[in-house]
Every structure is written in C-alpha cells, then in structure tokens.
Amino acid sequence: MSETEHTKHLPEHEATYASFIRGSIALCLYCAFILVALCAFGFGGSFSNLLGFLTLVVGLIAVLIDLRSGSNWYLSGGLLVVFGLLTGINVS
Predict the structure, then answer these.
(1) Helical H runs in 44-73?
(2) Region 31-53 average pLDDT
(3) Per-residue pLDDT tens for 45-88?
(4) What is the pLDDT of residue 10?
(5) Burial of 25 (0-12, 13-18, 19+ CB in 10 A)
(6) Where on the phi/psi map is residue 4: left (φ > 0), alpha (ψ -120 to 50), or beta?
(7) In this structure, are residues 48 and 41 in contact, taking their beta carbons and an 8 Å threshold?
(8) How many CB atoms lie within 10 A of CB 64?
(9) 5, HSE (Cβ side, Cα atoms, 13 Å)
C-alpha cells in the first residue's frame, strides 16, 4: 500500500485518540469521586465533612497519578471502592 496524505498522519491520529480516551476515563473516574463525596456530604453521619473533603482531594490526586503513570487505573478504582464503602458505612 502506498503512502498517501491520509496514511502519513495515521500514528498521530491514533495517539490523539488514545489521549482522548485516557482523558475521558480520568474525567469519568473523578466524576464518580465527586458523586461519592456528595453522598458523604449530604447523607453522612459523624464525620461526613471530613470524609467528603478527603474523597475529593485524595480522589483527584489518585486520578492524576494514574493519568500520568499510564497504569490500568487500579489506584483510582481501588480508592473509589474504599471511599464508597466508607461513605456507605457512614450513611447507614
């Protein structure tokens, strides 16, 4: 297959698409952290403000670490589950 104008830039397009997908995943994960924090703020019991604030700050740091390291989002996903369980325990 010969090099055409379209196929010359294909690796750049693939890199842009991969970056877009990684950014979309990071944004979705942080939105999930925000939802957990809002549940902690709204329905939490004894330490709801502290838990909600920690969820926002630690969640942002975890998402940024996973975004920069190019990992499989294990840190962010694990912390999201932990903060979700803590919020569930605090709400009930």
Answers:
(1) 48-69
(2) 91
(3) 788 899 999 999 999 999 999 999 987 999 999 999 999 999 99
(4) 84
(5) middle
(6) beta
(7) yes
(8) 13
(9) 0
pTM (global) more than 0.70? yes
- Residue 34, both tokens: 């925000």
Q: Tens of pLDDT along 18-28?
A: 999 999 999 99
Q: What share of the chain is helix, strand, coil (3-state, %, to 5)?
A: 85, 0, 15
Q: Give the integer Cα–Cα distance in Å for 3 and 42.
A: 58
**How many separate helices (H) and strands (E) can be counted in the chain?**
4, 0
Q: How far apart are CA 3 and CA 59, in angstroms?
A: 45
Locate 61 and state its tokens: 């740091």
Residue positions counted in the chain? 92
